[in-house]
Amino acid sequence: HVQLVESGGGSAQSGGSLRLSCAASGYTYCMAWFRQAPGMEREAVAAIYTGLGRPLYADSVLGRFTISKDNARKTVYLQMNSLKPEDTAMYYCAARTWRSSTCAYGYTDWGQGTQVTVS
What we know:
This protein is mostly beta strands and 119 residues long. The chain is 0% helix and 48% strand. It is built from no helices and eleven strands. Strands 2, 4, 5, 6, 9, 10 and 11 form a seven-stranded mixed beta sheet that branches. Strands 1-3-8-7 form a four-stranded antiparallel beta sheet, with no helix packed on it. It is globular, with a radius of gyration of 13 Å.
């Protein structure tokens, strides 16, 4: 298992931007961001291979959020632009080390979460 440490949450105005960071303690094959709003189920936001491969995005954030990686730092970022009040949630970083043809599921390691509030 890897340890994941998130940072970068906070408050923003509607239309504003925030950037989340997630640092892993070791090797990962896929990393992703999930979010959970009060009373709602956790949903996947974006995922990325730490090797080659195209990122995945939820339809609700496509064109507004960008997931990227810095393999040397074992860190994944989520740049969130054009924020909306409905983006308000606890955001969780997730990772897994096992390989498959998709990074859409199967996450085994989770961070503590960072709150994002958009007003």
